Structures are given as C-alpha cells and as structure tokens.
Amino acid sequence: MNNPLLNILIKIPGILIGITFHEFAHGLIAYSLGDKTPKREGRLTLNPIAHIDPIGLLLLFFINFGWAKPIHTNPSSFKNRKKAMIMISIMGPIANLLVAVLFTAILKIISSYNLSVDKYYILYQIINYGILINIILAVFNLIPIPPLDGSKILFNLIPPRTYFKIIQYQYILQIVLIVLLLMNVISKILDPIVWSIYEFLTKIFGF
C-alpha cells in the first residue's frame, strides 16, 4: 500500500489501544498492590491521551517500535518490593498479548460473516495490524535493556551487587538498543518470535 496517510490510519487503532492497555495494566497492578501514584497522576484511565509520549508514538507509526509515558511507582508502597515490581513490569506485555487475542477474536467474528476481503480490505488491515503490533509491543518490551519492562523484571531477579554493576551502564545500553533498532538487528531477532505467536493465535482461532 503506497498511501502514507492510509497506512497511518490503519495503524492508529492497534497502536493507541496497545499503548493504552499496556500502561493502564502497569498502573492498575501498582494501585492494587498499594501504590496510589498512578491514580494520583491520572494514569488509571483508558483515555489514550493520558499515556501518549509524542516521540514514542511517532516511532511506533514509522518503525513499529516506540514507547508511551512511563508509569511512575513508589516502591516503598509495596510490602514485597521485588515481587511487586516484577508483577507490575510483566503486566504490560501480558496486556498487549491479551489485546492481540482480542483483535484475533474480532478477526474471527468478521471472517465468520464471509465479508469480502476486497470490499473490506481496510478493516481487515486494521485488525491484522492490531494483532501484529500488540505482539511486537509485548515481545519488544521483554528485552532486558533499560528502560524496557524486561530490564525491570531482570533487575528484580538478580542479586543487588549485579544490579548496581549493570545499572551504571544503562545509558550505554540504551544507545546500543537504539543503534540495533536503526540497523534492524532487533527486528531480525524478534520477527521469528512475533510470527510464531501470530501463527499460534490464528491457529487456535481456526484460521
């Protein structure tokens, strides 16, 4: 498809729903574990505007990798800090996988009505992209490099001494991540995982 505007319109639902549910899930778990920070900052909402980071959003549209506003937490609010941070971090990717499942279910429902792919091409593209981008968001965020969710999970599993050694190089690691993204190295690594999950979802829904 060579129409840039149409490409963006096709991506809007999947991206906005993806980042909204991702950040909402982080905030909801933090709040349920006793941290009032997400609610105080207005992040316990499904309004995408509350979660959008302009630069991260643009990158999502053009390179399929980006970010939203991070959910702030107060670790002192948790009884078990490490367990809480792991739960909060992992719920973002889980939320994206659930959204991907939802989009797949919608695709199944639409397909059951035998809607013409040619006539409803844009609708099929919107739903299909919604599946893919949410799988991408889930998998990408599990990379254990700051500030991605995977790093927060890793840092709460490793010994404190190891954590402090790694965190000294967080900015270097972030630069490395950006370079790998620009060189499409991350895409080449993640694509097999993304497509495996995509094929699994479409298979269990009978496509």
Structure description:
This protein has helices at residues 4-32, 37-40, 54-63, 81-112, 121-141, 149-155, 160-167, 170-182, 185-204. It is built from nine helices and no strands. It has one domain. It has 207 residues and is mainly alpha-helical.
Class by helix and strand content?
A: mainly alpha
Please tell me how large the radius of gyration is: 18 Å
Number of helices: 9
Query: Low-confidence stretches at least 5 residues in length (pLDDT < 50)?
Result: none
Order of helices and strands: HHHHHHHHH
Integer count of domains: 1
- Average pLDDT, rounded to a whole number, is 92
N- to C-terminal distance: 24 Å
Report the helical percentage.
Answer: 55-70%
- The total beta strand count reads 0
Largest sheet, if any? none
